[in-house]
Design a protein that fits this description.
Layout lengths: L1 H13 L2 H24 L2 H73 L3 H14 L7 H15 L3 H4 L3 H13 L2 H10 L4 H6 L3 H11 L2 H11 L3 H4 L5 H11 L3 H8 L6 H4 L9 H7 L4 H17 L6 H12 L3 H11 L10 H13 L2 H11 L3 H5 L4 H11 L3 H12 L3 H5 L5 H9 L9 H8 L2 H5 L6 H28 L2 H13 L5 H10 L14 H12 L1 E4 L4 E4 L6 H11 L1 H5 L4 H10 L2 H12 L2 H5 L4 H9 L1
Antiparallel strand pairs: 1-2
Helix pairs in contact: 4-5, 4-7, 5-7, 7-10, 10-13, 17-18, 18-20, 20-23, 23-26, 24-29, 26-29, 26-30, 29-30, 29-31, 30-32, 32-35, 33-35, 35-36, 35-38
Length: 634
């Protein structure tokens, strides 16, 4: 009943006034008819009639409602069409207005530029600069003439123009292509403003250009202006990059020490003469009472640079190295905690790598794990770096958790083993695992001394014996190396550097190496008379000879240091050499033949010598040193 009532009410509300007026007479007629019929009909008939009449009334009302809705919907469409027309008219008017506004805006902008100081100079200078910066089409004489014209325009106004975003590039071009006198003139005009120039987002590029193309006199004058402001500039958003470039590219060791000296305290910033030939070692030796002050000021600069995001600068790396070299145990731990998650930022420089190595040496197991986690995304790149690979060697040499480091090596190196093995620096990470960093064949004296200096620091934090640690790593890395040798022996032996990895893998890795050995021997199949045969490459003949001997020659002890496991290369190679015996014995493979003879037992050696004796006349014609040694044996 409630729903029926609600519909009736809605119908009355939605109906128009005109409909309500028409409904009144219809209602009155129907009431009269009903009253007459009710008098004649029985109560039941009356009841059924009233029901049917109610249904008819409901049907009629629903028809009227639908007609009203259709009328309203039709009217709604007409209004939309009208609105669209109005919107189109408005859009056309708005377009006209926007064009006019845009034109007015351009005019205002042009007037504003014209009202600025040196507007005429700026417009003419940029026009010349646009011609001057064209490469390939401009001749030297034309460029010289354009630079001269441009220089005449900006002369005496350099200081006012250089801080503008467009004119800074113009003046940079003058410095790049200008003569010595023109460069000195620009530098003279900027005298006293070099610090401000370094801080400018546009002027900083000119500051670098003055160091790049300037004379020694200009550079010395600019460095003189930097003095006393280095600690502030290294923390400045714009100036930090200028100071870093100057320190890294355009200063000698004495000048670098003078810049770093300002990190030691205010007295070294104020008194310039005290920073000449001054170093922290000398300061602490002559004035040990100043240690606390110097180290405190040095730490403040380092900590501030880390907070500002300047930890990647070589200047900060130098400061960090000086700090950790003279730090107490607690001071070194402070540096470790501040940098352990950002170690990848400073492993690529000489000073930074030494800092990272020392931090790995003093860190505990938890800190080493955090440091390796930070390095993981850059593991392969770090291994290929000239300084970074030593950091990885140190990390592997310190970390007792060989399960973690083994999984890390497997995950990062497995798909890159061929590239790593052929890389000058990356292969040393693998060679460290195979033979250790003490091997002079792969690690220079300087690097060995650097790694040896960490032994006392590692003794307090690492428990495992280094040999045990490396042997555990071999069990993880060894199978990967043997697999890649089996599948790509020819590619690895063709390169001198990767052939070293092949040899030391077969000599030192434990396990079944038969497939890998066979793959290496198979590479040397064929006639050595062929120019493309690998035996003609000296590193290949040396590698094969070492494998036949089953160990490396030790010059100091004058003996071959044999591998613990016998490879049996001599026996496998003997039959293959027999097919082309003369070609092997009379050419680059002569020393390999000699090594095979020495490796065989007496019975096999005698058979082999008998075969060689048959070709003795041919061998005498050869001038190879190895062949002469064979003839002596015969």
């Amino acid at each position: 009943m409630a729903i029926g009532k609600r519909k009736a009410v809605n119908g009355l509300k939605n109906g128009s006034k005109f409909d309500n007026k028409r409904s009144k007479p219809a209602d009155s007629v129907e009431l009269k008819v009903k009253s007459k019929k009710q008098e004649v009909a029985s109560p039941e008939e009356t009841l059924s009639q009233s029901d049917s009449e109610a249904e008819e009334e409901n049907n009629a009302s629903s028809v009227e409602e639908s007609e009203n809705e259709e009328a309203e919907f039709t009217g709604f469409k007409d209004e939309n069409e009208q609105d669209n027309e109005e919107q189109e008219e408005d859009s056309e008017e708005s377009k006209k207005n926007s064009k006019e506004a845009h034109a007015n805006q351009k005019k205002i902008q042009k007037d504003r530029r014209a009202s600025k100081p040196f507007a005429d100079v700026s417009i003419k200078a940029k026009s010349l600069w646009d011609k001057l910066r064209q490469k390939g089409t401009l001749k030297a004489d034309e460029r010289k003439k354009l630079v001269s014209e441009l220089f005449d325009m900006i002369k005496s106004h350099v200081k006012q123009l250089v801080f503008k975003h467009d004119m800074s590039r113009v003046i940079q071009t003058c410095v790049k292509y200008g003569s010595k006198q023109q460069r000195e003139s620009i530098a003279d005009e900027l005298s006293g403003s070099f610090v401000e120039l370094c801080k400018s987002p546009y002027g900083k590029y000119l500051a670098v250009k003055l160091f790049k193309y300037g004379t020694p006199k200009m550079k010395e004058a600019a460095l003189g202006e930097l003095h006393g402001h280095v600690t502030k500039l290294i923390r400045h958003r714009e100036a930090a990059y200028v100071v870093e470039d100057v320190f890294r590219e355009y200063t000698n060791l004495q000048q670098q020490n003078a810049l770093i000296c300002e990190f030691y305290g205010p007295e070294y910033q104020v008194f310039k003469e005290r920073t000449q030939d001054m170093h922290i070692d000398k300061i602490l030796q002559e004035h040990p009472e100043k240690r606390a002050s110097v180290m405190n000021n040095l730490w403040k600069t380092i900590d501030g640079s880390i907070a500002k995001g300047s930890i990647g600068f070589t200047m900060v790396h130098r400061a960090m190295l000086e700090f950790i070299q003279h730090a107490s145990s607690n001071e070194a731990k402070d540096l470790l905690q501040a940098t352990k998650e950002q170690i990848y930022e400073f492993v690529h420089t000489r000073d930074g790598s030494q800092v990272a190595m020392k931090l790995f040496a003093i860190a505990n197991a938890k800190d080493r794990k955090a440091m390796l986690k930070g390095l993981r995304p850059y593991f392969v790149e770090t291994a290929k770096d000239s300084y970074g690979h030593l950091v990885l060697v140190t990390a592997l040499d310190c970390t007792d958790d060989t399960i973690m480091t083994g999984k890390l090596l497997q995950a990062e190196f497995e798909n890159e083993l061929i590239k790593i093995s052929t890389h000058k620096f990356a292969r040393r990470v693998l060679l460290y695992i195979l033979v250790g960093w003490e091997d002079a064949r792969y690690f220079s004296k300087e690097n060995r001394n650097m790694l040896a200096s960490l032994e006392s620091l590692k003794a307090a934090t690492s428990k495992k014996d280094p040999v045990v640690r490396r042997n555990e790593l071999k069990t993880t890395v060894g199978p990967m190396l043997l697999n890649v040798i089996t599948n790509a022996a020819g590619e690895l032996l063709a390169e001198s550097l990767s052939s070293q990895v092949v040899v030391d893998t077969l000599l030192s890795v434990p396990g079944d190496k038969k497939e890998a050995v066979n793959a290496v021997v198979k590479v040397f199949e064929g006639n050595p008379a062929d120019e493309k045969h690998l035996i003609h490459q000296i590193h290949c003949s040396r590698a094969l000879k070492t494998l036949v001997q089953n160990g490396h020659w030790n010059g100091a002890e004058q003996r071959i240091v044999k591998s613990e496991e016998e490879l049996g290369v001599a026996g496998t190679l003997k039959d293959m050499i027999g097919e082309y015996l003369v070609e092997w014995a009379a050419g680059d493979g002569a020393f390999v033949v000699l090594a095979v003879l020495e490796a065989l037992d007496e019975k096999e050696r005698k058979k082999f010598l008998d075969q060689l004796k048959k070709h003795q006349k041919t061998l005498k014609k050869s001038e190879f040193r190895g062949t002469q040694k064979l003839l002596e044996m015969l």
